[in-house]
Design brief:
Elements (H helix, E strand, L loop, with lengths): L1 E9 L4 H18 L3 E8 L6 E8 L2 H9 L1 H10 L3 E9 L7
Antiparallel strand pairs: 1-3, 1-4, 2-3
Helix pairs in contact: 1-3
Length: about 100
């Protein structure tokens, strides 16, 4: 498995628009990508403008395909003006590190 976490800080006037768009992105990823197994969208309890994504893919190639998909490109272009900051990390299960 290949895990991706993303933290977005969204410009205040665009929080609802962003949440709507990212929820659709999650749905599209799960429905259109066989190797996308989890796509959770969470919002900070302390800071409504901070959005956290937890995504799980079969492997890094599956994530690369996700980044090249039409639905990702459309989402990325739509939300770019609303994003104040974005931080992406990738992870592998600890068992793979042994």
């Amino acid at each position: 498995m290949f895990i991706v976490t993303v933290i977005f800080d969204i410009k205040a006037p665009h929080i609802k628009e962003f949440v709507d768009a990212v929820l659709l992105q999650a749905q599209n990823s799960l429905e259109l990508e066989d190797d996308c197994h989890v796509f959770d969208v969470c919002r900070s309890d302390d800071s409504p403008a901070r959005i956290f994504l937890y995504e799980k893919y079969a492997d890094s190639d599956a994530f690369d395909k996700h980044l090249q998909s039409a639905h990702f490109a459309a989402f990325d272009a739509e939300v770019a003006p609303w994003v104040a900051a974005k931080h992406v990390d990738t992870w592998i299960p600890a068992e793979a590190v042994k």
